[in-house]
Amino acid sequence: MEKKVRTVCFDCHSKCGVILTVNDNDEIVRVEGDPNNPVNDGILCVKAFSAQEIHAHPDRLKYPLKRAGKRGEGKWERITWDEALDIIEKKIRETIDQYGPQSVIISQGTGRGSNHFLDRLNNTWNGGGKVWPTHVCLLPNLAQTHVTYGRMFHPHEACDYRNAGSIVMWGTNPIRSRQYSGLRIMDAKRNGSRVVVVDPVFRDIAAKADLWVPVRPGTDGALALGLTNLMFQSGKFLAAEEMLTTWTNAPFLVDNEARMMLRESDLMEDGSDEHYVVWDKNAGGIAIWRPESESFDRDGVKPTLMGAFEVELKDGSKKTCKTALETYKDEVAVWTPEKVSAVTWTPVEKILEMFEIITNPTDDKPSLLTAYLGACMMTSNALQSGRAITILQLLLNPPLDDKGGIYFNTFWEFMLDPKITAYDRVPPKLRLGYDKHPMYTQVYGNANIPNDVWDAMLTGEPWPVKVMISVANDPLGCFENATKIHEALLSDVLELNVNMDYFMTPGAELADIVLPAAHWSERVGNFDEELYPEPCPFNIPQKAVKAPGEAWDDWDFMRNLGKRFDPELWPWNSSEEMQLWRLNEFHLIPNGKEPITDYEVAAKQGYFIEYGGENRTTRQHEKGLVKFQTPTMRIEVYSEQMPSYGYDSPLPSYNEPFESPYSTPDLYKEYDLCLTTGARDYAFYHSAWTNIAHQRILEPWPYIELNEEDARERQISEGEWLWVESLRGKIKAKARISKGVIKGAVSMCRPNYKHECKELNLPGYSWNEANPNVLTTADGSDPGFGAAPMRSSLCKISKFTE
Ligand SMILES: Nc1nc2c(c(=O)[nH]1)N[C@H]1C(S)=C(S)[C@@H](COP(=O)(O)OP(=O)(O)OC[C@H]3O[C@@H](n4cnc5c(=O)[nH]c(N)nc54)[C@H](O)[C@@H]3O)O[C@H]1N2
Ligand SMILES: Nc1nc2c(c(=O)[nH]1)N[C@H]1C(S)=C(S)[C@@H](COP(=O)(O)OP(=O)(O)OC[C@H]3O[C@@H](n4cnc5c(=O)[nH]c(N)nc54)[C@H](O)[C@@H]3O)O[C@H]1N2
Ligand code: SF4
Ligand SMILES: [Mo]
């Protein structure tokens, strides 16, 4: 007998609704999109269709394994889950006794649903926090919006795309990376919206766009500053005057010598240094802004947005102070289209055309910029580039928290809520790399800087990493500088390395215990990261088939290990109970609804929309429901927090990537191409699925994309095998030549082809043969946050020789 099971695909952040038809033999016989799910309206991409092959794959890990030979030798002994948990528990307890909890680290890759329960696991024993790719993914973007808005918003994705009049895809390709936004942007396009794509490579989204703006990798900040300059020069920013004066610190007066905002204490003996100063248009004099009451010192103040004003300081001297926005206007004046073009290698006419599109949205509908998870911020200049884009977005006057504009979605706060993460159990304390990149820990308090984790594994300094537990992460594929990671995973300092995955991976091969994981078709799941712009459903996935052998879902593992340390923190007896708790605690109870205690009942409903769609509360800031928790209690165009984290300016600025034709001209003589790594492939989810025929057939070989002129100059032909070499090492890839790559740059996609595909007779490659992260490094990371320059370094290419 066949039955249909409604569930959710977890193979990218879209989390599309799926209906699986399964039979009595535990086979998936059909995969369909769920037409009733508002995320995908029944549409699926190729990855979901592979559920059949993944579930039935003969190479799936089925039982817990313990290393039998030397590390990496490939000899394994089957053990039970109890034995595995005994070994892990014992080692964690010993480690905590001997070295302290900070010597136990958890590693995780991208959001696969269980992330924040992993935080909970680590905080169960007050552990050493996580190592995960948030130093490059999402959080550089959220960190700079956090600095700017004082909250975890995502104004670069929580956008009402369907009602926009122009949309810029700023280093993001939603057609590959998450179809929910791709579908919405295509709807907007059908409704007349114009679409701009900023990307060194012409990809599928560019083919659908009105304008492709090629940029040299890592130079997006310069482009954003150039467009900002045009906004000022044309006066078009004045459309946002009302919003900027009411909700931002753009009109605050600045002491340009001190590079700080002017304070009441600068003007008066008994003035507060937490009160700020504006020039009141109505009174023709100063007024004082008091953040604690979010009000001025008197009624009827109308702050002046632009200009320079003479104020009297408390010692009686006079000083001319510009507003923050006037200061920004002056600073970006050097970014003429010609200068931007010289830096970004974007033709001047493309810059002007982009400006024309973003300032003339169709039907006067809003103009939106999306940098999504911040691909263009995987550079040495990540946060300042991001701030330049965020502030440009504000100058374009999007409706704040309203239709057609950007939404202040609450979900970001859910993901990090201590009720899930148990952050409140662990007082803020040292994490590896905090001294170098202080901001990483302040915005997201539980993570280590990856490079410092590998150092601590290699040297035992500043403290040894003795235990690492990886769930849904292959460190060798994920993080920069794979050669160093390989060495670290073989180090004697690391005494227990655990890895939980669907398949044996290069990283798992270096583990001491390998645990088998259940695929989304085989589990109920529970996702604690929702990236939806609108309508924000909370889905209730169902288990369709049995996991192979003794594979557990990730929550089973966390719950069972967590219970051994603190049963009160892990009260649940099943993943279904964990899922229901999340639904009730964050969605139903806060909205005055009855909690649901039967999983079947919740699953029957399929999804819940309590915060988006018709239930959305708009303009929450005007209603006092959302506060901008910056020092000024306003959105901060001018941020004194940025210099406090080690950045060069309270206003967005541009710095060259750490390796580039201009920052390292000598190196550039030999390593003569700008390299960006990690663009997503439609077929793969990071390093996964090169063993699945449905997917591998679409991209059979590792490849490097390059411009036809660069190829011609080097006498390289299409499909030819090449060496790609950086100062860190070299890998191989086939040449893919086109006009659609900016001249002087090359791009390598994310997968490392770690698995062979037996069905197609295509090889797999070892960790150092085709892995772009052999080429990348943490050197030249963004100063405050530590974003590694995965998308902006230098390389050279040559013909492949054995
Ligand atoms: N050079 C370069 N490197 C990058 C990037 C880049 O752009 N350039 N991007 C970075 C970004 S943004 C991210 S988010 C990271 C992502 O990096 P990761 O998420 O760590 O991706 P993988 O290296 O593929 O390792 C993930 C492993 O988890 C397994 N897996 C998948 N789903 C599950 C599951 O539900 N449970 C379990 N137990 N296992 C599962 C897969 O089989 C795979 O082997 O990569 C980062 N690395
Ligand atoms: N199919 C699939 N979907 C995925 C994933 C996957 O592995 N596969 N991974 C998921 C994860 S964790 C993430 S973070 C998202 C990422 O999602 P996106 O950011 O949408 O996608 P990417 O393909 O990583 O990067 C987008 C574009 O950035 C371009 N780019 C490279 N360097 C630069 C630069 O310096 N400036 C600019 N402007 N553009 C640049 C690339 O050419 C690429 O086309 O995708 C998610 N969705
Ligand atoms: S876009 Fe594709 S991979 Fe992503 S959730 Fe939807 S079906 Fe799955
Ligand atoms: Mo990511």
Features of this protein?
binds ligand MGD; iron-sulfur cluster binding; Molybdopterin-dependent oxidoreductase; N-terminal domain of TfIIb; binds molybdenum atom; 7-stranded mixed β-sheet; Mopterin_OxRdtase_4Fe-4S_dom; Dimethylsulfoxide Reductase, domain 2; alpha/beta; metal ion binding; 6-stranded mixed barrel; 802 residues; binds iron/sulfur cluster; iron
In short:
GO terms for molecular function: iron-sulfur cluster binding; metal ion binding; molybdopterin cofactor binding; oxidoreductase activity. With 802 residues, the protein is α/β, with parallel strands linked by helices.
Please describe what this structure looks like.
The protein has 802 residues and is α/β, with parallel strands linked by helices. Among the domains are: 3-44, Single Sheet (N-terminal domain of TfIIb), CATH 2.20.25; 139-238 and 333-411, 3-Layer(aba) Sandwich (Dimethylsulfoxide Reductase, domain 2); 246-329, no CATH class; 665-799, Barwin-like endoglucanases (Beta Barrel). The chain is built from 29 helices and 29 strands. The strands form seven sheets. It has a seven-stranded mixed sheet with strand order 5-4-21-20-19-6-7. It has a six-stranded mixed barrel with strand order 24-28-25-27-26-29. α4 (115-124) runs parallel beside α23 (554-565). Iron/sulfur cluster binds at residues 9, 11-12, 14-16, 40, 44-45, 47-48, 179.
